[in-house]
Amino acid sequence: MDKIRLVGGTALRGEVPISGAKNAALALMPACLLTDAPLRLSNVPRLADTRTMTALLDHMGVQVGQEDASTLVLNAAGVKDTTAPYDLVRQMRASVLVLGPLVARYGQARVSLPGGCAIGARPVDLHLRALEAMGVEIELNEGYINARSAGRLRGARFAFPKVTVGGTENALMAAVLADGETVLENAAREPEIEDLGQCLKAMGAKIEGLGTGTLVIEGVERLHGAEHSVLPDRIETGTFAVAAAITRGRVTLTNTRADLIDSVIDHLRRAGVEVTVSDGALVVDATRNDLQGVDIQTEPFPGFPTDMQAQWMALMCTADGASLITESIFENRFMHVPELLRMGANINVHSASAIVRGVPKLLGAPVMATDLRASSSLVLAGLVAKGETTVRRIYHLDRGYERLEEKLLACGAHIERLAGTGAEAAE
Ligand code: EPZ
């Protein structure tokens, strides 16, 4: 298995082009199932997860053409199999996002339950309840969701008991072809959902309330093809902003939007990082001030994103003073803590909160990635730690970051990817 080797101590300087959002692309790609006309998606990030989604759609009979490095043309005219098999779903939970489109267009779907995940139980019960409200019959057996609808789905009013990004996406994609009006209350407001909604509207869907917690959808008989550019990845943007801050450098982030990470920018500024926006680029400058500890609590958008919690913790390990980090979305998202402790961090976890006390120096060490965002926090810590850090199991990283080491190298980081050897395969 590949690993990443870093030698810390260089203040990053340079420019980072931000890629398209993984979590938008993973919802936009299954949207092709809602029509038999081509859907052209540009600014699609090249990631392990988008390759897994391509493999799943291909398995169903979707034609997925790669027009150029970041443009896909997806055509579901020839879909012949409405099953999402376990061996693909277990690799990527977002595979469950084919459920809503499949049952809305084909009246049936057999999708493996995602199963467990490192950061939490992550059930899909609310996805299923929303679909049942639209008339879908759901049966669970042999680890699969068997969904069936006698005729067209029917519009319904459904209030999500808790905010769920994937649940909102599945319900939205089902509602656009339903008969009548659907009202989704307490819907997630993440920018990736607004991006999906804009794409669906370009395909002919009738949706009101995008960006708010109440979505009103007037179902239509069919959708047509469209072209859509995936919005910038706000978590990659935040991750590189933290890379600039933790190394006390100055980095310009391009092809992104500041409004996608207002909460992260606010917290960076409160910590002493200078963040300015100039002609569409984000300039993150940590060369002048000492950084102070700042508390965070993760919340649904527009609150502080849970996908930035691990990265923020790495930064707080190097700040002056203490910070309280509360994870309120997932029940097990502190697996980066033991690895940061190996690097000399001072962190104490008390159930859903961690108290971080800044230390003068992190020390390089061999560490192990456990999940996507935990692995990025270890890379961030390695950028500033004294000496050498090697991060193992970086397949986690490759799921969500396109060319991470290249982008860091371009800003002066001492980082390289070491090809794994067979002997380490069991690691
Ligand atoms: C999406 O996951 C993202 N993934 C996650 O990003 C992100 O952390 C999460 O939203 C929260 O923002 C993609 O978009 C592909 P949820 P999702 O449904 O949709 C509970 C990353 O690092 N819940 O909003 O699975 C659930 O257990 C990944 O890029 C139910 O109880 O998240 C969790 O505690 C990690 N029942 C909370 O809601 C349900 O039916 C939020 O989950 C659904 C969710």
Task: List the keywords.
elongated, 14 helices, four-stranded mixed sheet, alpha/beta, 427 residues, binds ligand EPZ, MurA_subfamily, cytoplasm, EC 2.5.1.7, Enolpyruvate_Tfrase_dom, cell shape, 24 strands
Task: Characterize the structure shown.
The active site is at residue 117. Keywords: Cell cycle, Cell division, Cell shape, Cell wall biogenesis/degradation, Cytoplasm, Peptidoglycan synthesis, Pyruvate, Transferase. It is a single chain. With 427 residues, the protein is of the alpha/beta class. The protein has 14 helices and 24 strands. The chain has helices spanning 22-28, 48-60, 86-89, 99-106, 125-133, 165-175, 191-202, 234-246, 262-271, 309-316, 336-342, 372-384, 395-400, 404-409; strands at residues 3-7, 13-17, 39-42, 63-68, 71-75, 83-84, 108-112, 137-141, 144-148, 157-159, 181-185, 206-208, 214-218, 226-229, 250-254, 274-278, 281-285, 296-297, 322-326, 346-350, 353-357, 366-368, 388-392, 414-418. The strands form 6 sheets. It has a 4-stranded mixed beta sheet with strand order 22-23-1-24. A 4-stranded mixed beta sheet has the order 2-15-17-16. A hairpin with a 2-residue loop joins β4 (63-68) and β5. α5 (125-133) packs parallel to α6. The longest helix is centred in the N-terminal third of the chain and has 13 residues, at 48-60. The radius of gyration is 22 Å and the shape is elongated. The chain starts with a strand and ends in a 9-residue tail after the last strand. The chain binds ligand EPZ.
